[in-house]
Amino acid sequence: MKGIVFSEFTEMVEEKFSVEMLDEIIMESDLPSGGAYTTVGTYDHNEIIQLVSKLSEKTDIEVDELVFTFGLHLARRFSIKFTDFFNEASHLFDFMKSLDNHIHVEVLKLYPDAELPKFTFDDSDPECLIMEYTSERGFSTLAHGLIIGVAQYYNESIDIEVEHIEQNKHVLFKLNKK
Q1: Helices in 98-168 by DSSP H: which ranges?
Q2: Cα(30)–Cα(28) distance, rounded to whole angstroms?
């Protein structure tokens, strides 16, 4: 997993909890990296799972809630760091449909070793976008938070139905305009 995800997670922990909390969860986890992340580095995704689990233990906040909140954080940060991608789309559905055939293509140019989730879409109904998410890492809750965060960026209200085909690894997101 790319270091930018880890760097943003540590930033979120500092913002929402404290630097001390970040230090504690790093010190109490068994991290091959030692918890030192660069945005361009590549790290085992199990490290972020350990960090989120440890944060959950310390805060009594469910892991899924923390991961969802992190998705919201990432959407906000990505809209600042990668403004062009957000400016190229005029609304949520267009942005989401650009993930695999544009955004992820550009990410892979910069980080050829990145292992990205795959998305397919059914946009036959203009009021509904069905997104099929597949990833061996199983971070569909993170994707859910990202989707909501992107909707917030475009100031759009949506309802999302989530259908787990294979727990967190293969999920259908049905986005309905309100």
Answers
A1: 104-110, 140-153
A2: 7
Task: Tell me the β-bridge partners of 104.
Answer: none
Three-class secondary structure of residue 54 per DSSP: helix
pLDDT tens readout for residues 100-135: 888 888 888 877 888 889 999 999 999 999 999 999
Phi-psi region of 172 (alpha: psi -120 to 50; beta: other; left: phi over 0): beta
Q: What is the pLDDT of residues 26-83, one digit of tens each?
A: 999 999 999 999 988 899 999 999 999 999 999 999 999 999 999 999 999 999 999 9
CATH number of 91-177: 3.90.1520.10
Distance between CA atoms of residues 164 and 22, nearest Å? 31
- Write down the domain spans for the chain: 3-61, 91-177
Provide φ and ψ at 44, rounded to 5°: -65, 130
* Edge-first strand listing for the sheet containing 118-125: 118-125, 128-134, 170-177, 158-166
- In 88-119, which positions are buried (b, 16+ CB within 10 angstroms) versus exposed (e)? ebeebbebbbbbeeebbeebeeeeeeeebbeb
Residues, the chain:
178
